[in-house]
Amino acid sequence: MKKEFISLVKELYGNDFVPLHRPVFEGNEKQYLVDCIDSNFVSSVGEKVTEFERKIADFTGSKFAIATVNGSSALYMCLHLSGVGRGDEVITQALTFVATANAISYCSAIPVFIDVDKDTMGLSPSSLRAFLENYAEIRDGVCFNRQTGRIIKACVPMHTFGFPCRIQEVSEVCKKWNIELVEDAAESLGSYFQNLHTGTFGRLAAISFNGNKIITTGGGGMIIIDDEDLAKRAKHLTTTAKVPHAYEFFHDEIGYNYRMPNLNAALGCAQMETLPQMLQIKESIFARYSQFFDGCGIKMMRPIEDAICNNWLSAIILDSKEDRDDFLSYTNDNGVMTRPVWRLMSELKMFRDCQHDGLVNSFWLQSRVVNIPSSVPSLN
Ligand SMILES: *Cc1c(COP(=O)(O)O)cnc(C)c1O
Description:
By secondary structure, this protein is an alpha/beta fold. 38% of the residues lie in helices and 16% in strands. Pyridoxal-5'-phosphate (PLP) binds next to helix 4 and helix 5.
């Protein structure tokens, strides 16, 4: 199987070293960058920023989008705007990229790690429900963790590799317990659940445009919001809390310089033009992989019913840790990059004292899941 897999990857991507995911700049990227330079607006003010924000808002079906320097700052800002503060608890999954847990820590809040579903790799609504029934109580409309005495302020599910989690159910559980839902949609631009774009199920969500994501601005992020007042506040706080004035500098609170430079937004505008085409090509690559792995009896991750996946990173589930390690070393030795999932957050020294629910599925997936090359080879 491994040898045939290498042949398939080389057939899709050519004979050079095949990375896991690389960006594709075959649209108007160069032209828009040149336009920026010619206009002198290369930094944190410029019309490309506004245009890129509008494109993301329209694409995701949210009313507003606020561009930031990266996905981590966007996620931190979502939590900050949700009122997450010192000593609060925020529920998230242990199977995620470290930025999710870091954003919680930036608020001086404490992560609580809940298990994922095996078939989505995203936060499990049934595990969430079970945890809250065991440990939480509502007092005066506020959700408390009875074990720690702390407030459970927010919940951050993540759509792993672009596969939507059971977000509608997670949202219902959060509503019932008065917990703010903040989606980490960093990996899921172009993914939908029940025809709604991921990141539109709670009040606030974050997207990332880092170099390895489905589209890139070099580095960048976006907050998506429906509420106009909250959107204004997000824009204000991420742009140094400067009160608009033609020439005077006046700031009315401690703000952040999280502004996305115009150069990066220019890249984003061009990338958005090609996104629909990239999604189609990614779908066809997923189909090729799918046919191959079905043929050898290896399980590929697929979106659950009612979900559409952007196919950012394809993933297979091997039978055991031994099979996984064997596959990882064979493929990487043969010029094809493959990668295991992240180490669970609960195993990192910064987070190992955080409360968790046993994380049975997370551990199971951690020792079996492998990502395989998923770039768009070319737009032609
Ligand atoms: C990429 C990513 C982020 C953070 O994005 P950056 O732009 O790299 O800061 C956050 N969460 C998840 C799950 C990610 O994959």
